[in-house]
């Protein structure tokens, strides 16, 4: 039988295997799950080996491990491609909002629910399965293939830059394809031409030495919760413009051509509101929602902690308050410069009666913009057009894949997003799911991509 | 021997008993401690009975119970006094900041450490012990005495108003003395002439239906954490003036005479900063720190909850954010009116892209101001002057004892604060303690108060 028949014949096993993979709670952000991330890495090593890929091995970094493997017997006249994905997942909290438990994968209809189902466990299995089918049915792969999977994408890949710099021979390739990313919708493919960069930080405001009685000390010393509110409010106007001094200085604004290309992609504001459940869209004034999502930098509060958060009333005047913040950056913003601007802003705007400090959190990424006329992008676009029967949209993504900018720095290669999730699959949220028909479609697409790259 | 000799002879036992009392974690704010609050109430019933007080009994309310008891054999020509205190305590979190565990009372030097040591378990035992000594040594009390102890002071006594209204016969008295409160310092007594009122509420801001990926949706929908920051910042200027429309309308401002009386009480700003550990004092502009602490209303954030609060980075755009707020009120502010003003303010200032709602939390108190020339206050002042050898300062308190305003409403009596804690004893904070010499001194003072009130 042909390799696509092989995929059909083994799909049920592939789904069972994906369920096994999801059951490993490889939450990279939580220290108590360090061993689970390692277990997931070992699962990937074993799965690659089972598929017929060679040299599958886990490598230590200063944090969570990476997994590399290769199959390099297509011949020197064939290109070598590097396929990227990640086996770590986001924390699953709040657990009580999941319909079925996050680490007990459950199929409802044609969807598989579980943390990591789409981001990125299901998606990163796709190229492994395509390679297995090709090897099983043809005895070889059309091109030389390297696999590179990591266990720290969800915390911003902090330990990858030195590891990549130290191990170029494991990653040497002519093109990079990322199995983390996604398609426009179940009918329509896309070529993702830009990813946002990332900087992650925490602002901590301190007042008194310890929590105080709010009656005895209210009016005597400043309230760090209120001071933090003033600081945060000073960073972004209520109508959505970031007011950190210098924040927009290095931004390459969208050209009229960029804005026209973005406007050609369908956008249904009502559907977006229905999807998110938000009462209204909200972004930087002067730009459409799509332009903000794709082409403008953001500053988002990820969490705030202060004082009493249990049930009922506790009449304390808290000793401190802190906020986690991530900024998504666009070309040509630099993560370190943005961090410094925010630190300077906090110092300049710290309200009276408290002290404030800014610290970096793990995670950084340079913004990433694929150059026009990029060859691997063009071929991937042809495969997607063939598989979907529709010309891909040219899009940008609001998300960041920090390792993409590192690979660009170290290997000089722009990665091509070639992945099969969809934006509505509750990535990073409760009830994350992956569409099983897409899981199958992606396997064909990756097989055809390898064939097309060979000739 | 005389009754003060009895107190000396039995002090070691009294301290052991106070330790037993502190070991009961009667945290009224936490549902999981409901049974412990009841256990503490039963402990009080047993201790009153052991002291020779009669009719000691626990009474149910709609929430935590109260305990009443009496000794009414002094004769109809003697006044009847009502002594108030509370057997519930504040939550002990954060546990890791305690030198010894909060519910394992520990003596270091002449201080007894533990949650509730001073507020109010140690303080409320004092009048019971004075009565025990008088009964043991003289066979009677100089006046008729009722005891009224409650188990919900630390959550604002939400269920007391209807219970007090329904049980006036248990509380009928000529004067009320509160064993919750404190003295100026170990050398100097005080007469507390005012308590602040209280209103407690929560502001919740909602955006999307669930937490979203901050990269995919940042710039698309509003961030409830940032919106809450704008809302909170709109309620109070960075320099400390409350900017909720109408908030100060009903405030009776401090007169020149009030300000002069306050200025006569010693104040050491450097010592206050050393005590609290705050980098600077901070309160409403135009008033001294002491005036703000005692005579001006406050609006304090008690806690903020939003999004990811675990270790590291989670790149979410949170679905909601909420803040707990308590306001301390002065005469003639009304807790319900202040709540309504804040709710209206939140509605008027809700940032775009989110919804905001305000809900009441348990706890209310009217501000409380003792009229000039109040008789019980004058006698208590004489006893304190005799015991301390020093004229009491006339002070006000920033804290609230909601039941005081309820007793005033229902019984028409202004309570006199006659209690022996000190402000530096970490009430509501880690390492709460009570000074054992004060514990002893208070027992003599309560005995003498009863004697003085008899003649």
From TrEMBL, chains A, B:
Q: Which Gene3D superfamilies match?
A: 3.30.70.360, Zn peptidases (3.40.630.10)
The organism that produces this protein has a lineage beginning with: Bacteria, Pseudomonadati, Pseudomonadota, Alphaproteobacteria, Rhodobacterales
Q: What is this protein called?
A: Dipeptidase
Q: Which UniProt keywords apply?
A: Dipeptidase, Hydrolase, Metal-binding, Protease
Family matches, as PANTHER family: BETA-ALA-HIS DIPEPTIDASE, SUCCINYL-DIAMINOPIMELATE DESUCCINYLASE
Going by the entry's taxonomy, the superkingdom of the source organism is recorded as Bacteria
EC numbers, comma separated: 3.4.13.-
Any single Pfam family the record assigns to this protein: Peptidase_M20
GO terms (molecular function) for this protein are: dipeptidase activity
Q: Which residues form the Peptidase M20 dimerisation domain?
A: 194-353
């Amino acid at each position: 039988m042909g390799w696509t028949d092989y995929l059909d014949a083994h799909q049920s096993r592939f789904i069972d295997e994906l369920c096994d993979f999801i059951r490993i709670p490889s939450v990279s952000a939580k220290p108590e799950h360090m061993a689970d991330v390692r277990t997931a890495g070992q699962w990937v090593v074993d799965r690659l080996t089972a598929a017929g890929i060679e040299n599958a091995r886990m490598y230590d970094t200063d944090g969570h491990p990476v997994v590399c493997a290769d199959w390099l017997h297509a011949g020197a006249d064939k290109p070598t491609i590097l396929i990227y994905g990640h086996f770590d997942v986001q924390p699953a909290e709040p657990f009580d909002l999941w319909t079925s438990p996050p680490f007990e994968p459950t199929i409802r209809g044609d969807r598989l629910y579980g943390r990591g189902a789409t981001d990125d466990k299901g998606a990163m299995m796709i190229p492994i399965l395509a390679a297995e089918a090709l090897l099983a049915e043809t005895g070889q792969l059309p091109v030389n293939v390297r696999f590179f999977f990591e266990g720290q994408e969800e915390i911003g890949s902090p330990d990858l830059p030195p590891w990549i710099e130290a191990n170029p021979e494991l990653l040497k390739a002519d093109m990079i394809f990322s199995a983390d990313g996604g398609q426009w919708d179940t009918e329509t493919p896309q070529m993702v031409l830009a990813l946002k960069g990332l900087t992650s930080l925490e602002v901590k405001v301190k007042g008194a030495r310890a929590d105080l009685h709010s009656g005895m000390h209210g009016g005597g010393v400043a309230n760090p919760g209120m001071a933090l509110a003033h600081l945060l409010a000073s960073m972004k106007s209520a109508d959505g413009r970031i007011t950190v001094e210098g924040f927009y200085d290095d931004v390459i604004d969208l050209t009229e051509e960029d804005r026209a290309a973005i406007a050609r992609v369908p956008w249904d504001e009502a559907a977006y509101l229905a999807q998110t459940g938000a009462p209204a869209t909200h972004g930087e004034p002067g730009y459409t929602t799509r332009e903000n999502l794709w082409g403008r930098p953001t500053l988002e509060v990820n969490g705030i902690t202060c004082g009493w958060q249990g049930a009922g009333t506790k009449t304390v005047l808290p000793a401190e308050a802190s906020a986690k913040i991530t900024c998504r950056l666009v070309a040509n913003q630099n993560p370190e410069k943005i961090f410094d601007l925010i630190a300077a802003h906090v110092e300049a705007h710290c309200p009276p009666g408290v002290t404030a400090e800014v610290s970096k959190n793990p995670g950084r990424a340079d913004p990433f913009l694929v150059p026009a006329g990029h060859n691997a992008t063009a071929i991937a676009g042809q495969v997607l057009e063939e598989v979907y029967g529709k010309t891909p949209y040219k899009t940008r993504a609001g998300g960041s894949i920090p390792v993409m900018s590192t690979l660009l720095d170290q290997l000089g290669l722009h990665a091509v997003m070639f992945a099969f999730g969809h934006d509505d699959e509750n990535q990073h949220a409760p009830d994350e799911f992956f569409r099983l028909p897409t899981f199958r479609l992606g396997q064909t697409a990756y097989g055809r991509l390898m064939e097309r790259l060979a000739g």
